[in-house]
Amino acid sequence: MAREELAAWLRLLLTPGVGNETARKLLAAFGLPQTVFSQSLTALQTVVGARIAEALQEIPDELEPALERLQTWLAQSDRHHLLTLGDARFPSALLQIADPPVLLYVLGDLEALSHPNKLAIVGSRNPTHQGATNAHQFAQALGQAGLCIVSGLALGVDGAAHEGALAAGARTIAVVGTGLDRVYPKRHLNLAHRIAERGALVSEYPLGTSPLPANFPQRNRIIAGLSQGTLVVEAALQSGSLITARMAAEQGREVFAIPGSIHAPQARGCHSLIRQGAKLVESAQDILEDLRLGAPATPEEGSTTEPPDDDLLDALGHDPVSLDALQARTGLDTATLQARLLELELDGWVGRLPGGLLQRTGQS
Known about the structure:
By secondary structure, the chain is of the alpha/beta class. It folds into 3 domains: 1-68, DNA polymerase, domain 1 (Orthogonal Bundle); 110-290, 3-Layer(aba) Sandwich (Rossmann fold); 311-360, Arc Repressor Mutant, subunit A (Orthogonal Bundle), CATH 1.10.10.10. The protein has 16 helices and 12 strands. The chain has helices spanning 3-14, 20-30, 33-36, 41-45, 50-56, 63-76, 129-144, 157-167, 189-198, 215-226, 240-250, 265-275, 284-290, 311-316, 323-330, 334-346, and strands at residues 80-84, 103-108, 118-122, 148-151, 172-175, 200-203, 229-232, 254-257, 279-280, 321-322, 350-352, 357-360.
């Protein structure tokens, strides 16, 4: 893209009062941004109010630094991209949502955005051990079946979903709430690099944008919009994951939810979604059948998802439990109980939760 054209796109969104909706109105009325800025004040006022029309005739002070930063970033790698709303490479799925971004920054492989089968997996930033395991296992199984996994790079379920997709050798897309020259949270720096190698990092926010709280609910529409459906693994009643699910439903996309314990706060959002019509899923196959896609790959010979025959696992049940309660159920002395729990924990069948609680996990 020529410097003048690039500058016009940036200037459009840097103009005070011009957001995505106003920018789309101007583009629909006049065509390319360069044409917008060649219009008279009178012509602009037929589309936007006088205040915005006057602002469009002024060059924002931050335009030149933003342009220099963007050109430098684009020149750094052939895996750095800027897609405009009119670009043929712009994801067609996003054109179908009510509020598509005008600009989309991409770090990675553009082919990931055009992948025909994409599923969003979202959930709590503080999941239970079982919730994180479910996110990883569903993403891995669905990735093995050929799906591209979309999530938000956040701690918890998002990170587990990306990791599961990568473990399957599948593509994965992270839609972030910052500029692509930043990684948030910082502990996902290595994960972000691996996602860029196997898929793509995507943002509508200009380079240098900090992780502002308002950005994350806003980016959720892109997570939902890129995907054929959204799977919510764990979510509290007031959470960003429910925002993503609502946006998916509004966009006419499928919404799936994994049920959980009636005692777990992280399960209440999923239960609420199911009451509202989300599809209850217990396996990756449930999702594949609903989306009319193939079965996940068969596990390697010798692998198992069946728990060992262990009376302590039976006593644990599937809800979080305290050590005292477990001791009362089993009648085991403390030393024996701790030793057996340690063995199960090392084998991946038991996880420890905050507050000293224990929970049975899905598989080793």
